[in-house]
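Run log // design_07
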């Protein structure tokens, strides 16, 4: 184990992952060492996004020449990784010790260890990924771009939610759903952009038939959306590259067909958080959906969603040197392998549970959940482990988000699994982070919020001009 990953050991150990090195504990131990050394200096990291907005994150590290300055490099690399997937950006500006900036510049290149992240961010924001080095006091001022979307329930609205196996749509009049439907579809295997256009447009027309008029349309879907344009979305992965321009303009074209009325589409995690915030009648809400992967969304203290990515699946929450490797990004300890069906299957092997490889993902998950429902001790340890991950994960997220509420949902939380996760997460917070346990409330949303509420919340996205 590296010196950095061994800075802290969890007091609550996941039963099926004994070498877990929680990011929250390691970061806390590192910052405590910096403070106690008397050799701490400012480390300020800025990220610029495609719309010109700038996020700034302030922390500390050891001064150049300090005996423990070598710990600065893994700390800064993991913080930058977290910020990139939380907030997004094509440019990273590192203000602090030059050695830290040089390290980030080296690893976040098209040939460095974080090649995946650099290439991905460059593609999302359609700009070559760049790292600049400067002094901490020369970092630009923050200029955040929040989006005044959500919570608008006036008028006649349509809300839709595009999932991998079904599409949902609601007709909403002054905040009340007067019609809702769910239709099975198969978008991921559809190669023709016209399939997606026609399916979504059919859903809109069906909802519209239940209202006297349509004032606005709001929608949610998995993926990265910038100004209503899908930049990366598994939903459309069947569409070949030479036709993807049709997908990029899909919702812009739909808006034109609907007469240019307010029409907004965002990541489904954002709408999940928005649905929770509307239900709770509060702000500072992080939604974490444990499905085939991990999805996230955030409602700010001002009650708005952000222009951030909030792709929490790629945020590292385990700093262990032997942490599992994400097959897509090639990185260690990322949330997708701790808060998802992938986590269940990974831990099932550790528990000695065999899973039929011929089954689909949903059937595989159900087979393990059936064991949980039968009180199989091996299955219980799986969900207890995920619960421990969740507690430490929430503490890590709290370093980067201002939180009052965390919503935990998704198929992995079905049946008794959600209650086990919640109980273990609360145990971690009360044991290791009592200050967070007092101010952050964990929730398992009810079925209404998880399903129908998503489309209704999406309908509330656009502002209707008056």
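design_07 sequence
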């Amino acid at each position: 184990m590296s010196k950095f990953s061994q800075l802290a050991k969890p007091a609550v150990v996941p039963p099926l992952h004994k070498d877990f090195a929680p990011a929250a504990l390691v970061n806390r131990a590192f910052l405590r060492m910096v403070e106690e050394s008397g050799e701490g200096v400012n480390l300020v990291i800025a990220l610029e996004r495609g719309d010109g907005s700038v996020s700034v994150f302030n922390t500390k590290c050891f001064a150049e020449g300090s005996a423990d300055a070598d710990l600065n490099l893994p700390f800064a690399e993991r913080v930058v990784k977290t910020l990139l997937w939380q907030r997004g950006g094509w440019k990273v500006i590192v203000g602090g010790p030059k050695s830290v900036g040089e390290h980030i510049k080296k690893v976040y290149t098209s040939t460095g260890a974080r090649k995946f992240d650099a290439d991905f961010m460059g593609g999302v924001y359609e700009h070559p990924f760049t790292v600049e080095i400067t002094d901490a006091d020369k970092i630009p001022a923050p200029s955040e771009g929040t989006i005044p979307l959500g919570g608008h329930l006036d008028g006649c609205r349509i809300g839709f939610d595009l999932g991998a196996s079904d599409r949902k749509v609601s007709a909403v009049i002054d905040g009340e759903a007067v019609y809702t439907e769910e239709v099975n579809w198969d978008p991921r295997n559809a190669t023709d952009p016209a399939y997606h256009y026609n399916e979504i447009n059919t859903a809109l027309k069906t909802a519209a038939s239940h209202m006297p008029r349509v004032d606005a349309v709001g929608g949610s879907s998995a993926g990265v959306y910038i100004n209503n344009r899908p930049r990366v979305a598994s939903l459309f992965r069947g569409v070949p590259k030479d036709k993807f321009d049709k997908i990029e303009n899909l919702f812009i074209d739909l808006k034109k067909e609907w007469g240019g009325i307010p029409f907004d589409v965002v990541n489904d995690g954002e709408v999940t958080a928005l649905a929770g915030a509307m239900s709770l009648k509060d702000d500072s809400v992080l939604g974490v959906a444990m499905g085939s992967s991990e999805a996230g969304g955030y409602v700010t203290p001002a009650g708005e969603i952000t222009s951030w990515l909030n792709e929490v699946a790629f945020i590292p929450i385990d700093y262990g040197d032997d942490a599992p490797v994400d097959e897509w990004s090639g990185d260690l300890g990322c949330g997708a392998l701790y808060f998802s069906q992938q986590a269940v299957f990974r831990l099932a092997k550790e528990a000695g549970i065999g899973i039929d490889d011929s089954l689909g993902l949903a059937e595989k998950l159900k087979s393990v959940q059936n064991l949980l429902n039968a009180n199989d001790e091996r299955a219980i340890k799986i969900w207890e482990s995920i619960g421990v991950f969740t507690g430490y994960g929430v503490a890590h997220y709290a370093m980067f988000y201002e939180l009052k509420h965390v919503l935990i949902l998704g198929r992995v939380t079905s049946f008794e699994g959600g209650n086990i996760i919640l109980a273990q997460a609360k145990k971690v917070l009360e044991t290791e982070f009592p200050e967070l346990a007092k101010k952050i409330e964990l929730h398992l949303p009810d079925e209404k919020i998880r399903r129908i509420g998503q489309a209704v919340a999406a309908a509330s996205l656009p502002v209707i001009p008056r």
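The chain has 15 helices and 17 strands.
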